[in-house]
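W.,

You were right to be curious about this one. When I first looked at the sequence I had no strong expectations either way, so I just let the prediction run and decided to look at it fresh. Below is the sequence, 588 residues in total, followed by the output.
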Amino acid sequence: WYQRRVAFSSTSEMGQHPSQHADRQSQTQHERSAAAKSSTEPSATSHSDHTPVVNASSTGAEQQSVSILNELHTGPYNFNEQIRAGKSKRDTPSWVQDAVFYQIFPDRFATSPKVQKPSGLEFWDSKPTRNGFKGGDLLGVAEKLPYLKELGVTAIYLCPIFQSACNHRYHTHDYHQIDPLLGGAKAFEHLLAEAHSLGMKIVLDGVFNHASRGFFQFNHILECGEQSPYTRWFKINSYPVNAYYERKPPTYAAWWNLHALPQFNHENAEVREFIYDVGTLWVQQGIDGWRLDVPNEVKVPGFWEEFRRRVRSVNPDAYLVGEIWGQAQDWIGSRFDGTMNYLLNKACIGFFAEEIDASLLDAFVPPLDAMRFAEIVSNLLTLYPAENVLCQLNLMGSHDTARFLSLVKNDIAAVKLANLFLFCYPGAPCIYYGDEVGMEGAKDPDCRRAFVWDESRWNKELLDFFKWCCQMRSSHSCVREGEFHCLYARDKVVVCARGRVDHYFVDSESTGNTAAQEEQTEHNTLVFAFNTSQTDAQVILPHGSQRLSLPDHTVFIDMWETQASPVTINEGKLDFTIPARGFRVFKL
């Protein structure tokens, strides 16, 4: 039996939209989907520092839908002004803006022969099932760190690793024990030490809204009933407790009313202290942050603020990122440094995908023309202070979504376009394991296939592209911490820049260019041009009466297509062509 639900956001909760399902066994897979109420949508030029954006006619993307994009409002912050002004003191970890994250589903990434396993595991390459285990472990992850280093990864986000009776481990049995199937504490200690020696961070998945039927305190209630001293750790409605007979509802508060997921009673101070202690314990052990699962489900005021205070007292540079699917003004800052940026994900699907397999979506995503896409990505930068924008976890897929390659019907061009934008947009890009070699996968559990270690099955061209994106981001500080400007948006073409552009775009009557040349080295700027159409597209920058303040005949080399003909400035304009379903990257 497979149960799915889609939740619509409320004004008070700022758009968290989980959908979950259960099976008749004792395990429930984690899935999320997102949907929201439609609302009035603002102009792209709001808070955009007046960077010129070429308008385009509507292509119907303004239609009413349940898409979370339609709830987007312009916020009060000017990202570029804040970046330009700088900030002497920040309350976010500075390393995040420089990171390239890699999300790993531990049971499916890599297995080491050094970790003893029970019999009964599924074959590594067989189709994943809801309850089956493949046998991936943390020593396997450690042994593959050289691969991740070569790829360009600097931070790893691990799905839950604590002791559990389900393959995704979102049903926690013991928050103090690493699951023995993953190699136990020694395997994790080795992974943590090896990762840190390579300059990589480790972020764990914290599931603190609910536990499992195997969690000691809940199991104690099942054994002892009303006489258990732990009855106030959960909200028990009646006795005897019904935890397994699923034809009748659970007799306690359970997440999405699923028997397998008893919710903690966060109003109980003992529960809060238990969770705070877990949060600080693993930071003391050396982890670099927490990704917090369904944090909006915890309703007790001040809970996450105190969690943040406790964790930061141990490590002021620990990263806290929340699983919030919509706008998160109530969650960013006092609670979390950033969120999983599913709003950006949906916008990229709407613009870069030529075709979408709608059966793999949980909520409708409208097709977007260039101007609408530019509006959305510009408005996203206005929602939070710049330091938090730079801490957003930007992703094209996760364990809760179909793989992007399958979603766009195996269109490699769409994968490249969307991920290049991910790497040039403010925030930390996150690669879902295997996306870099062309892994496919429909909805959960198919999106959680075992990693393909047979290199003959890899898409080597795509892997090289991801390596180039990581290297490009690493070697250009403007892409990690610079301003963001949409320079051009028409039909199916978007051109954006990271870094200072005011040095280069001047009024036509201006004759001076010395300052721009002098500051070019200090304020490096990259220009990214995207063409999602089936035909080549010509672009002339800057648009209108403005001109570039660099001398005519200045040559620009495409950083990606190094064999392409150089582009030169002529009469203050940069005139170039973007190939069909392709991109270009220039350095100013």
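Here's what jumped out at me. Residues 269-284 form the longest helix (16 residues). And, maybe more interesting for your project: The chain is about 25% helix and 15% strand.

Coffee later to discuss?

I.
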